[in-house]
Here is the input.
Amino acid sequence: MSTPAPLAEIIADFADVDGQDKLAMLLEFANDLPALPADLEEAAMEPVPECQSPLFLHVDASDPEQVRLYFSAPAEAPTTRGFAAILAAGLDGQPAADILAVPDDFYLELGLAKLISPLRTRGLSAMLHRIKRRIRAVVE
Here is the structure.
């Protein structure tokens, strides 16, 4: 399994910092979560109930060479927004095959496990699982 270059770069950036700086970086990602396009409403998106905070995602795999990912999470949920933003920055626009090849536990490489509860990291894992499931439904 491999990691697409944008996601690998994010993982490397997290590896370059320690402790609370990792949390600060996660919050920076949370602030950078792209807004939904005007034609996509949260009500039409898939909820991710494994997340501690409300999170919705939409996967557009109609072009398997450039999968589009959209996330919605409230501003009051910075950890969840940060995780969504990491996936958006690391995987949006990537080929379906590359996203499907991402290791399910890639989030361990971010080094956040000691700083964030397992319940929170389970949300990130669930997001990736749902993205992969949606892609498989379209491309297989």
Q: What stands out?
A: The mean pLDDT is 93. The chain has one domain: 5-139. The two ends are 18 Å apart (CA to CA).
